[in-house]
Design a protein that fits this description.
The chain is α+β, with helices and mostly antiparallel strands. It contains 47 helices and 41 strands. Among the domains are: about 120 residues, no CATH class; about 160 residues, no CATH class; about 70 residues, no CATH class; about 140 residues, no CATH class; about 200 residues, no CATH class; about 210 residues, no CATH class. The two termini are about 30 Å apart. Keywords: Signal. Pfam families: PSCyt1 (PF07635), PSCyt3 (PF07627), PSD2 (PF07624), PSD3 (PF07626), PSD4 (PF07631), PSD5 (PF07637).
């Protein structure tokens, strides 16, 4: 039957009986919710009898089949059967009735009782419909992973975030407002292509290992190698420093503190101090006692009695032994890094360097010996001790006393005769012919021997020409330049001249008509002018580094040489490109054959880039001022001869030579010394004054003298030199002499027989002081040896030391000297003691660099040396991990193959600059190792493929079907058959897995028939995991699925509780909670005015992080739902705390801060992210915030605003004296707007104390006071955020809890809620009331529900209802 459409008319009152009937017909909403569903027969009767007539009067005028306003045809619902076919339509009718929007305001309105009757019937019908199909799981859709799920799944599969969604389009929200809603997750060919590209990028990070593969952060072999190196270094760094050494001082300090504690206390102490507990325990044990050891026993004895002040020297002694028992060497050529050193000898060489310039008149040397073990030292024999000095005869220690006595007598004679001897020397210098030494000695009444020594020192009348090692090899076209020629060979040293006027580069700069020399590491290169005729001459020189772009410069000397005498004129060093001038010097007399020599040497032994330009100019003081210029006279025809004639044809004037670098071999008179000045002095008076001064120097010693005179003193008084010969006096040696030792201390008979005449035997421990005159000691070295002879009752081991100053007294052996063993057995016992010490106190525990850089061309690409670390510190698991990392390093880096290339380079390098035969023995093992590695690579390929097949179930989140495994193997095989390398074929097959539907979709199969059926265990694992962690099931969840446990609701609930407490609950916070409250991806928004809020850009990331941490904490701590609003804590760093005005938070780290409600924070209402998101770009918006509270938190629908609504000012300062609140209130007076605004604006007004980026304020930007008081349409009043919170958790608590549960359920199911979900919502609300309102209760109820655990049948009995 079709009801007639009533004419539109004004409302008229109903008869009283009709109103009473309708009132009785419409039960209270609470009763509807509390009671069970009404039967459909009863609903059918009331629909035809009461509801349909009301619809005809108030609804069908617009919503008829003909009019169909809003695309709604209510006329078609003639009977309840038609109504039941479209329950979704009636849910919309219920919303319209609840909001009061229908009928429109300008149409006839039903009386209140009539409206309640309609609302009541619709509510009862919908409830009946909901319960009729309660638990319907909903439609089975092709559910693609959304971007977050895709990214998180790959993170959990690979362990890395490769940002795989960076090229994917953003997901759309649907259903209950979430991006995981299946209906919105569409796929297109273009999107599938992007997924394939992303899969290839991810697959490029797969690292093939010996037994499988894993994912790395990088995507190149170098990246993978560096990552493995980083992992190995991380293990090393946990226990050792950058040099691979352990902080022994820290360990010993901790062991000292824990000496009286048990093992548990020591472990606790180690953890507190960041030390390795195993090593600390081992050290404590070995220091407390152990087998006898000549090394450890003295340390143990001191350890047991040590106080805090004794610890540093004890640590120093142990460190000393560590350094003494191991040496380090380069490893680049396949050698070990740490080499054991066993400082035990049968005979110990003695080499004690004595001071170059002793302070005082003597040097005291101590000869000391001590024993180790229970006995005392046996017979210590000091063998052939003597003083050695380069170029001087050696002096036996037994002769020191006699020689010192003779030197003293000679020294006195020399001092007394200085002035007359130098007067005689001056006279000799003036002689043109030969010198009659006897006549001069008689004339000046001096000792002929002493005068002869002075004349020899000064090179007077010797008649000897200085000998030079001249270059003989000829150089042509040096550096490929035709004009560059000289003397030497292709190796340094050499001399080259430029015959052209152009500057040449050979390399290094050779100026036109210039001369350059180049020294070697050990030889100086020199140029000398030979005096052709006796006379007085002046000299000057210039030196310039010719290759300043590299190298460290050179040293130079300018000397006058007479026979063996070298008189230094000047010396120095080059640095940079500047010219270094020397002179002019003179005039000084020279005899025919005397030399002016300019030599160039390497600086610090480094001769690289040492090409040096030199020039030497000599002028005669008489003879018309004749001049000689080396560069001008030699450069034109350098190869004419060596020696080279001068410009006048005098033969052999210019000489080019080489000589050892170091101190001059003859007597060198220091420049500016008194004797050098005496030589230069022109007059007799000047020479006499300087002679007197020289006498005082020799009489008083060098104390207080200039450096040049101090050096001169040493040269003149050096024993064995020309002035003071190192010979005994010839008189009896005085017993009371303080020098040396008595002669009777040496040789046989004094202590033992069989002792050589120059040896000294001493029994037992001793320390003998030997005083040596400063003149004998200066620059000398005490050399000899010492042995330990076995004697009955004596110790088998001893140590002997020769030292300047008394040696430290100590019991037992010390690390600063080798140990003497009396025989092979003692030697072996001592070596075992050294081994034991090294085992417990290794010099280093690992080669932490791993990559050697100590050779120009290295053969060892990665050097492993960590046995002490593994043995002393690592537990079995960590040691196994370290071993695996090293295996992976060699496999991934392929260093066995790279080593072949390195060997080839090394051989090329050695062929050029060395002897390649030294490396030839490495050839065979290197190539054999490479070949073995190639076989290993081939053998690993099947394992890689099987690992990939085993990986697929993890990606697919279920076991593979047999055909799927077969298809993967076949795909790989086809790729290899197309000649793709193994690695490429593997990567493409892996990409296929990561782009397959089984990975990209959460596929579920509908059971046949009408009824729903439980999801499989694997489907349940995915449902639960993607609900709570937005990712694939973890290992525990997979294990439960494999065991068939997830169909048990209790097991499912237990797994849900576990996941809620895991760190991955952060994902639920972001993906669910942040989407729910509309702040998802808040850190990416860019809609705030930088002019108004410049701080926002730097704070938005912190605002978002606070929200995520807050929600995650609520989920993990099993908080009640009300804590979403009334929590009195938040998470802050310093920047956000300052934004909030909360003190006491310093630094960038995040921490939980309690008691924040007194600062206007706490709960989601106080989060700056929610406050800022629901605000404008430059001002607050009570409308946005009010609408957010109404729709998002309370779940009430607000109609869309009408078109052409006037806009409010853009910022608060543009309000014309009105606040934002006042502007909104004025705007809301419009009758079209007032209804909705009255419903939502009060909520927004209560949050006006927070600006557009969530800061608290008392005035707005225009300086107007803030009014946060609010009044709802029903008269309810509240004030500010606290008032709003109290309202929501008071009278509106059922609504906010139901809204939270509704959103959580919609997110869990990944779809919009249906009418059939209403009973479940009711059930969850009842459980919340009964069980304390905890969030976990809602989660538990959801995962136990049929909607979550079941899959709808392939032929459902009802239409989808959303």
């Amino acid at each position: 039957m079709t009801l007639p459409l009533p004419p539109r008319r004004s409302p008229s009152p109903l008869p009283a009986f009709a109103l009473a009937l309708l009132a009785a017909f419409a039960p209270a909403p609470a009763l509807v919710a509390a009671e069970g569903p009404e039967s459909f027969d009863a609903l059918d009767r009331s629909y035809g009898g009461q509801v349909r007539p009301l619809m005809a009067r108030f609804c069908l005028g617009c919503h008829s089949t003909k009019e169909k306003a809003g695309d709604l045809d209510l006329e078609a619902f003639a009977k309840l059967d038609e109504v039941r076919k479209a329950p979704g339509t009636w849910r919309k009718v219920a919303e319209q009735l609840a909001s009061g929007e229908m009928p429109p305001k300008d149409e006839d309105q039903p009386a209140a009782a009539e409206r309640d009757a309609l609302k009541g019937w619709v509510a009862r019908y919908l409830k009946a419909e909901a319960y009729a199909n309660a638990g319907d799981p909903g439609p089975v859709v092709l559910r693609r992973l959304n971007n977050a799920q895709y990214a998180y799944t790959l993170v959990d599969l690979t362990g890395h975030d490769y940002r795989p969604t960076r090229d994917l389009p953003a997901d759309s929200a649907a259903g209950e407002g979430f991006t995981n809603t299946g209906d919105a997750l569409v796929m297109s060919p273009a999107l599938l292509g992007k997924y394939l590209d992303a899969a290839k990028r991810v697959a490029a990070h797969a690292v093939l290992l010996p037994d499988g593969f894993r994912f790395a952060n990088g995507d190149t072999r170098r990246d993978w190698t560096e990552e493995i190196l980083g992992s190995i270094r991380a293990i090393y760094a946990r226990h050792a420093d950058a040099e691979g050494k352990v902080p022994l001082g820290k360990y010993l300090a901790a062991a000292f503190e824990a000496r009286t504690r048990d093992a548990g206390a020591r472990r606790e102490l180690a953890a507190r101090r960041g030390l390795n507990p195993r090593y600390l325990e081992s050290l404590s044990r070995i220091l407390d006692g152990g087998p006898p050891s000549p090394i450890l026993d003295p340390i143990r004895a001191r350890w047991k009695s040590a106080g805090p002040a004794d610890l540093p020297p004890l640590i120093a002694e142990i460190e000393g032994w560590r350094n003494a028992l191991t040496r380090f060497q380069t490893v680049g050529h396949m050698k070990p890094w740490m080499v054991p050193v066993d400082p035990v000898v049968d005979r110990e060489p003695i080499r004690l360097k004595l001071p170059e310039s002793p302070k005082g008149r003597e040097v005291v040397v101590h000869l000391a010996a001590g024993g180790a073990g229970p006995g005392r030292p046996g017979l210590v024999v000091w063998e052939n001790l003597r003083l050695a000095r380069p170029g001087r005869p050696e002096i036996a220690l037994r002769d020191v006393r006699a020689i010192a006595q003779g030197m003293a007598a000679r020294h006195a004679k020399v001092v007394d005769s200085v002035v007359p001897c130098l007067a005689a020397a001056a006279e000799a210098l003036a002689m043109k012919g030969g010198v009659d030494r006897d006549a001069l000695s008689k004339k000046h009444k001096v000792d002929p021997a002493i005068l002869g020594a002075w004349l020899d020192t000064l090179g007077i009348g010797t008649g000897r020409s200085p000998g030079l090692d001249l270059f003989t090899g000829r150089l042509t076209k040096a550096g490929g330049q035709d004009a560059a020629a000289g003397w030497g060979s292709n190796e340094t040293p050499l001399v080259v001249a430029n015959s052209s006027d152009e500057t040449l580069h050979i390399p290094g700069e050779l100026k036109g008509r210039g001369v350059v020399v180049h020294p070697s590491p050990t030889l100086r290169a020199g140029a000398a002018w030979t005096c052709p005729k006796a006379g007085d001459y002046r000299v000057e020189a210039r030196v310039q580094h010719a290759h300043p772009a590299c190298g460290n410069g050179t040293t130079w000397r300018l000397e006058l040489r007479r026979g063996a005498v070298q008189i230094s004129l000047a010396e120095g060093a080059t640095a940079g490109p500047g010219v270094v001038p020397a002179g002019p010097f003179g005039p000084f007399p020279m005899g025919a054959g005397d030399l002016i020599a300019l030599t160039i040497g390497p600086r610090d032994g480094n001769h690289a880039c040492d090409l040096t330009a030199v020039d030497l100019v000599v002028k005669a003081d008489g003879d018309g001022g004749r001049a000689w210029d080396m560069a001008r006279e030699v450069s034109g025809d350098a190869l004419a001869a060596n020696p080279h004639a001068d410009a006048s044809g005098n033969p052999g004037v210019w000489r080019f030579f080489r000589e050892p670098d170091g101190e001059p071999s003859g007597l060198s008179i220091p420049a500016s010394s008194t004797l050098a000045r005496w030589l230069d002095a022109p007059g007799e008076a000047g020479k006499e004054y300087l002679a007197t001064k020289l006498r005082r120097l020799l009489a008083d010693g060098p104390a207080g003298a200039s450096l040049a005179d101090a050096a001169l003193y040493r040269k003149l008084t050096t024993p064995g030199g020309p002035m003071i010969p190192a010979t005994p006096s010839g008189r009896p040696v005085l017993d009371e002499s303080p020098w040396g030792l008595p002669p009777k201390a040496f040789g046989p008979g004094a202590v033992a027989d069989g002792i050589a005449p120059a040896d000294m035997a001493v029994r037992g421990p001793h320390s003998i002081a030997v005083r040596i005159p400063a003149e004998l000691a200066a620059g000398a070295e005490l050399v000899g040896s010492v042995v330990l002879r076995p004697v009955e009752g004596g110790a088998e081991v001893a140590q002997a030391r020769a030292s300047i100053g008394a040696p430290p007294a100590a019991d037992g052996l010390r690390p600063d000297a080798p140990a003497l063993a009396s025989g092979p057995a003692a030697r072996e016992r001592l070596k075992r003691a050294f081994d034991e010490f090294r085992a417990w106190f290794p010099a280093a525990v690992c080669y932490a660099k791993i990559v050697p850089v100590d050779e120009v061309v290295t053969l060892t690409l990665f050097h492993r040396e960590d046995e002490p670390l593994r043995r002393l510190m690592l537990d079995p698991d960590e040691a196994a991990r370290l071993d695996r990392l090293w295996t992976e390093l060699h496999f991934v880096s392929r260093d066995a193959l790279t080593q072949v290339e390195a060997f080839t380079h090394l051989m090329e390098y050695a062929t050029q600059d060395g002897d390649p035969r030294l490396f030839e023995p490495y050839r065979k093992p290197i190539h054999e190792h490479a070949e073995a590695f190639r076989k290993e690579l081939l053998a690993a390929e099947p394992r890689h493929l099987e690992a990939l097949v085993a990986f697929a179930p993890l990606a697919y989140r279920r076991p593979l079907a047999g055909r799927e495994a077969r298809e993967l193997r076949e795909l790989y095989g086809r790729l290899r058959s197309e000649e793709l390398p193994h690695e490429e074929a593997f990567a493409l097959t892996l990409a296929r897995v990561l782009a397959s539907p089984a990975f990209l979709y959460r596929l579920e199969a509908s059971p046949p028939g009408v009824k729903s059926a439980p999801a499989t265990d694997w489907e349940m694992a995915s449902r639960l995991s993607y609900f709570l962690t937005s990712s694939a099931p973890d290992a525990e969840l997979r294990e439960a699925a494999a065991a068939g446990k997830l169909r048990d609701p209790d097991e499912l609930a237990a797994q849900a509780r576990r996941l809620l407490k895991s760190p991955k609950a952060r994902r639920l916070a972001e993906e669910f909670a942040c989407q729910w409250v509309h702040i998802y991806k808040f850190d990416a928004i860019d809609e705030k005015s930088e002019r108004h809020f410049p701080a926002f850009k730097g704070l938005k990331g912190a605002m978002y992080e606070e929200a995520i941490l807050f929600f995650a904490d609520l989920f993990q701590s099993d908080a009640p739902v009300r804590a979403l609003y009334d929590a009195d804590f938040t998470f802050l760093n310093q920047a956000l705390a300052e934004h909030y005005g909360i003190p006491g938070v310093a630094g960038p780290g995040w921490r939980r801060v309690d008691g924040v409600r007194k600062y206007g924070r706490g709960g989601l209402l106080g989060l700056s992210a929610t406050l800022a998101k629901q605000a404008g770009a430059s001002r607050t918006s009570p409308i946005l915030r009010g609408n957010w509270v109404t729709e998002v938190l309370l779940g009430e629908r607000v109609p869309k605003p009408p078109k052409n609504v006037p806009l409010l000012p853009e910022d608060e300062a543009s309000g014309g004296g009105l606040s934002v609140r006042q502007l909104v209130e004025r705007h809301s007076r419009d009758v079209k707007c007032s209804g909705c605004h009255a419903k939502m604006d009060p909520y927004g007004f209560s949050l006006e104390a927070y600006d557009a980026i969530g800061r608290r304020r008392e005035k707005d930007a225009a300086g107007l006071p803030i009014d946060a008081r609010a009044r709802l349409a029903d008269g309810t009043e509240f004030d500010g955020l606290d008032g709003l919170r109290n309202l929501l958790l008071g009278s509106r608590r059922p609504d906010v809890e139901r809204q939270f549960v509704k959103k959580l359920l919609g997110y869990a199911l990944g779809r919009g809620l249906m009418l059939t979900d209403e009973p479940l919502l009711d059930d969850i609300r009842r459980r919340l009331d009964a069980e304390g309102g905890k969030i976990s209760t809602a989660v538990d109820a959801i995962v136990r529900s049929r909607a979550f655990r079941e899959v709808r049948g392939a032929s459902p009995a009802m239409a989808d209802v959303h």
